[in-house]
Amino acid sequence: MLKTLHIVAVTLFFGAGLASVVLKLHADRSGDVRDIAFALRAVVFADWVFTVPSGVLLPATGLGMVWTANYPLDTPWILGGLALYVVAGVSWIPAWLLQFKMRDTAERCAREGAALPPEYRRWTRVWAALGFPAFVASVGAMWLMVGKGFAFSG
Question: Is 148 helix (H, G, I), strand (E, B) or coil?
Fold first, then answer.
């Protein structure tokens, strides 16, 4: 059960992140403030429904499996996975908070029929710059979990 929940959580965590990037960047490219506001509402919603719960489930189910299998916490692939999870979280949380600002700004501009402020492009660059290490860390953690000890065996 723990393994199934863990796999579902990682799928939702990773999938929601990729979908959010595609949706937001596609809407930004359109230049239509209404599309951008819609996309950001969807991105924030998806994070609340999928990313946040799965982000909580990942360490809970992962540590539950470690405890059940009686692995020491200082096993290199476990420590590496936990470290990459922390990197992903430290990168993702500020990007997540920035999404609220972008959403609120886009919604206001859409209501008022106004253009997005120049800061919006900077916020998007910061959002993408924070998302990149979160993505790389997530892929790295998945690689460690799937490969387990293979990555560290000599």
Answer: helix
